[in-house]
Amino acid sequence: MKIFGVILIFSAFVFAQSEKLEKKGVVTYLSSQNVYVKFDDTEGIAAGDTLFVKENSNYKPVLVVNFISSRSAAGETIKEGNLKVGDAVFVFAIVVKKDNDQIQDSIKQLIDSKIPEQKLITPDVTVAKVPVKSSTYKGRFSIQSYSNLSNLTGSNDYQRWRYTFSFNADNISGSNFSVSNYMSFAYKANEWGILKHNYSKSLRIYDLAVKYNFNETTLLWFGRHLNRKITNISSVDGLQFEKYFGSLYTGAIVGSRPDFSNLGFNLKLFEYGAYIGKTDSINGRPMENTLAAVEQTNNLNTDRRFVYFQHTNDILPSINIFFTSEVDLYKREKGIAKSDFSFTGIFLSARFSPVRDFSISLSYDARKNVIYYETFKSFTDSLIENETRQGFRIRTTIRPFNKLMLGLSAGYRFRKSDVKPSRNFSGYLSYSQIPVIQTSSTISYNKILSSYVDGNIYGINFTKYIPFAGINLSAGFRKTIYKFSYNSNSLEQNNINVDASARIIENIFFSLGYEGIFEKEKTYGRILFDVSTRF
User: Fold this and answer.
1) d(CA 217, CA 233)
2) pTM score > 0.70 for this model?
3) Stretch 473-487: mean pLDDT
């Protein structure tokens, strides 16, 4: 089967001026509102600047600077992430040009320290290189228990255990080898007698790979790995090669997809593809474009053939944009294979946060069902029309006063066959550290409207930190009222939840929670337990 060609689309704006310098900082403290970063100095850093982390040799925006001192900066996260104390972050600082005397002094210092003058004049801020330097190790292990109870006669009460392990080692012992791993093992306690003879039914490996850096611009992944440049393709079992040519990079994948039923290794699901991309820095702000083409097979018969485009940029102040698109190039009708050009999915999100106390996010999503013509033959044979599901979402967060936070969101989703579109509206009001009791409280409301349900959810929650014991406590109440359009019945639930969490000793965390759901005649209860450690 003849495979398709790759089309390269990217924008190239490269600025490598002497007054733009990359500065490295270290995360020193995390609060509920800000992340604090320490630098050697903050010259050239201003409020509104964006801080980045390096992931797989790319700059990823994570923070927007709100406050600055002589040696540190505090900022608000751009999107949810897993920043922690000790993580390295970077900023492209704009250093003001000096007068002639200062320049002469600087040149003399450079000569005395044997630093080539040219490196100061034209620093390369656009070339993304894979670091091959110091070793770093980090990991997490957790044990979770989930017990489900009810008052129903003959109900199947159960306890579920889940173990998760993640580990990342970069440049092991100063070598060019790195390792990444994330896996889980989950089972019901009453099924252990069966599972202990076949662990594969409960084991899920999401990432297990070895990386080798041939040099600063060339790398190879082997094993199961999710490539962040082509995330929609999911994990690949096999080889992934990547090469940088300045700010331009290209890569190739060859291997197989994890099995659909149990995430196991399945060589029958062979796949291969290639991608090309470019990273740019405009006024010290990053932009990246990636285009990929992939052929997925089942028993070497074409299952799916598509191209995938991904774009991220932070080139406008206070605005972050993320865009992806998929186009299918293959279809089969009545057993006859044909070339096609059909948009399968488009996703666009934008976040605008001009000041610390205000942000607004917009997103649009249009997607058809992804069709695998070989793997799900029975489904594709009966498919008459693959409808597009479209959705819009808007969300805003406002801090009118120092300890008061207001959040509002609305969503709209529809398909042609829907009797009426699905809509949801939600809002919350949160106040931090109520005087006297020193407790934070949040009230919330959620409205759901669709062709089959009209729902209202009301909630209130309290949280309190006990400093001398190092314990976080929370308690909440939620009332749910659902009215169904297909009959006259309605559902009313009262939900109570309590939770306690604490750091037992250094790097060991513990939490215990209870959730009770009370209906007119039925009662459900869930007990959740978690202990985890980071290293």
Assistant:
1) 23
2) no
3) 90
